[in-house]
Amino acid sequence: MTSIGPKPLFDHLDEVASLAAQPRFGLVLDYDGTLSEFVVDSGEAVLHPTAAQVLPSLIRKLPLIALVSGRGARNLVDRVGLDGILYVGNHGAEYVSDGEYRVVDGADRAREQIVAALDHMAPVAEEDGLFWEDKGFSVTIHTRNAIDLDRTERKLQAALQTAPEMDTLDVFWGNLILEIRGRTGLHKGHAVQTIARDHSLESLIFIGDDTTDIDGMRAAREFQDNGLIEAAGIAVIHDGTPQGLIDLADFSVNSVSEVGQFLLWLDEASSHSR
Known about the structure:
- The chain is α/β, with parallel strands linked by helices.
- The chain has nine helices and 13 strands.
- The strands form two sheets. Strands 1-13-12-11-2-3-4-5-6 form a nine-stranded mixed β-sheet, sandwiched between helices. A four-stranded antiparallel β-sheet has the order 7-8-10-9, with helices on one face.
């Protein structure tokens, strides 16, 4: 399903129907900006009502639903609150399945460097009224409250230049966030590959919207190109969606609400195909 630029999903639902009909199909989704609207305080991000309505039915019908997020896995569980979903947090560093929590080997090896970077960046964030999350395996500084966003981002960028041991860390600028995490090789693409392997998937759909979703979208594209499994990527396009994600996506929707509408369609289609 390769194409030049993503096609509008709702004009091409027949092209994804065959993926969802496979006996070992996996639906892999981001959370913030995909299943939840962006909010000023990330602690108030809630599951979109349509997704909350339809996910319990999809859990019963689909072989696998996985949420892959930059949030901590337990935070993700608290946000969604549904059994029967595979929760993957910190971009693939931690998993919760059937209530069992596990950390991927080596995920915490950059912890000291992450703490040092946060200690260095915190005064800049405090000065500009920003808030941050220390998620153990990564740190996210939220810039939504910045009065002058350009000025704040320049200050943060300058602080990054002098932070200790940054050559051991990866830095990502997303939609109103700055994220710092260990250079462990763990990212959403690695998570998508792991999920596909561990669950012997025959087909997969990945949905995301932001910078850290590019790796997941790339994994879906590589599955297609290598002929390993049937796969498609869906980009949620809104202000801040990176061009790199759009370029890799097969299909597009224009809002979190449209993701919900797709899930409703998928629920109905799965009723007829299984």
